[in-house]
Amino acid sequence: MLHIGDSARLGRRDFLRVGSLALGGLSLPWLIPTAHSGTKLSEAGKPVTDKAVIFLFLHGGPSQFETFDPKMSAPVEIRSATGEIKTAIPGVTFGSTFPKLAKIADRLCIVRSYVPGDANHDIKPIVCKDSHGANIGSAYATVAGGNNPSNGMPINCVLFPRAVDPKAGPEQGGFGKFASNGPFASSAAPFQPDGDSSLKKDMRLNIPFDRLDDRRAILNAFDEAKTGFDEGFDQLDVARQKAFSILLGGAGEAFDLSKEDAKTVEKYDTAKIIDVEKIDRKWKNYKHYTDNAKTLGKLLLLARRLVERGAGFVTVTTNFVWDMHADQNNAHMTEGMSYMAPPLDHALSVFLEDLRVRGLEDKVLLVACGEMGRTPRINAKGGRDHWGNLGPLLLAGGGLPQGAVIGRSSSNGGEPNTEPVRIPNLIGTIMHTLFDVGKLRVTRGVSREVIQMADYTPIRGLHE
Question: Among 154, 209, 217, 353, which is most exposed with the fewest C-beta within 10 angstroms?
Fold first, then answer.
């Protein structure tokens, strides 16, 4: 909804108060000077592939055993506490709580030799030393631009539960800053569309009520506001610049799930997958468990809407929920997976099918992992502790091979038994998906940090 004020004259500060997505197709050349509907970034001379990445960060450190490497021939204290299930790939099993993903395993790429590197709670690999302390999407946006020139869509976004549910808890910021732009320009920082950020807090437009029906009058009001700026639009706060580009370029509706077909929203909805009333309230992570169940599917739907309309990199996370020590904060493996696995299984399955139906399967790469894995032995309370020597990694789409299982783990599931895949390799795969790397290397003005990330060796077996 458009915020209505009582002043026809828009002062600089008033103009910067945003909160609305309601101006549809309005586009002002002084705000989006290169706007050409439907223009691809590659056609505009950018060294990019016009593909997108959605990075689902499973915060807390999911177990490799109960997800995609069950090790059921190992002793009971090592193997998956939830058992295993056959997949569409002969001889390959998943943890038994992933029946829907098991049926489409021949469309996935599972890496069983992924080494996170340490057992720390943080937000690697999405933000880490190998990404120069920036969200990986910021490296992309520093080359591709802060906003898509065709409609103002932010190139780089991060989605927390409040992006789809204002009643959800706030973002988990205690382990790192998801919106970090590191050494890159602030315009490359991720745009965060939730209850505390730009679209709802920074964008509020004062236009007299009796002029709302006159688009020409609205455009004139913007022109008046522009001429009233004492330092010009380039001096405005970057987040607000992005918000205005979204509003005026017509991309605002992408952030509004009420604009999506109701049947599609229903398909994605993970709130119905588990009964949140049965989640034990004794766990300190109870709120995170329930937020995950209620928002995960809709977050992936929102991410799809954004990349479909021009975003190039979208980070999705439902906060800190995969830490299954069986302590005062977190449930043990069996109970914890009963809360976490069904929403993930459902959401990813629906998302990947939706990409296929929409012709986006080869254009969007899904990456799903956490900051670490879990110990080979289940502890005395039925949980698993932190482990940095091996962790689960799933990729799908983006033109990568389907039905691939990359690498093997040791007999106890705690170490790689083949060439390890490390964070730089994952970043390399992401960069080779997003960029025409050969063209990138000879493009003037590209920072050494971006070149270094693009020069990381991609995951072997996916780009050959």
Answer: 209
The per-residue pLDDT for 328 is 82
Cβ atoms 51, 144 nearer than 8 A? no
For strand 108-111 and strand 404-406, is the pairing parallel, antiparallel, or unpaired? parallel
What pLDDT band is residue 204 in, cutting at 50, 70 and 90? very low
Region 76-97: mean pLDDT is 98
Which 3 state secondary structure label does DSSP give 231? Answer: coil
343 has a pLDDT exceeding 90: yes
The most confident of the ranges 164-173, 383-392, 454-463 is: 383-392
Are 115 and 389 in contact, with CB atoms under 8 Å apart? yes
Q: Is residue 408 part of a domain?
A: yes
Residue 34 has pLDDT above 60, yes or no: no
Q: Which amino acid is residue 390, in one-letter code?
A: L
**What pLDDT does 267 receive?**
98
User: pTM to 2 decimals?
Assistant: 0.86
User: Within 13 Å and on the Cβ side, how many CA atoms surround 168?
Assistant: 30
Instruction: Give the pLDDT of residue 245.
Output: 63
Q: Say if 157 falls within a structural domain.
A: yes
- Give the H or E element holding residue 340: helix 333-357
Each residue's pLDDT tens digit, 105-116: 999 999 999 999
Question: Taking 70 as the threshold, does the pLDDT of residue 38 lie above it?
Answer: no
* Dist. CA 151–CA 156, nearest whole Å: 14
- In which domain, by residue range, is 104 found? 40-195+251-454
Cα atoms in the Cβ-side hemisphere of radius 13 Å centred on 189: 20
Residue whose C-alpha is closest to residue 17's, from 296, 334, 244, 289: 244
Strands 386-387 and 373-374: antiparallel
Distance of CA 169 to the CA centre of its chain: 17
Number of structural domains in the chain? 1
263 by Cβ neighbours in 10 Å (0-12 / 13-18 / 19+) ranks as exposed
> At residue 214, does pLDDT exceed 70?
no
Distance between CA atoms of 141 and 124, rounded to whole angstroms? 19
What CATH number does the domain containing 158 carry? 3.40.720
What pLDDT does 10 receive? Answer: 42
The string of DSSP letters for 43-106 reads TTT-SB-S-EEEEEE-TT---STTTT---TTS-TTTS-TT-EEE-SSTT-EEETT-HHHHHTGG
Quick check: is 437 in a domain?
yes
Q: Distance between CA 194 and CA 298 in Å, rounded?
A: 13
Query: Has residue 246 been placed in a domain?
Result: no
Q: Which residues pair with 93 in a beta bridge?
A: 86
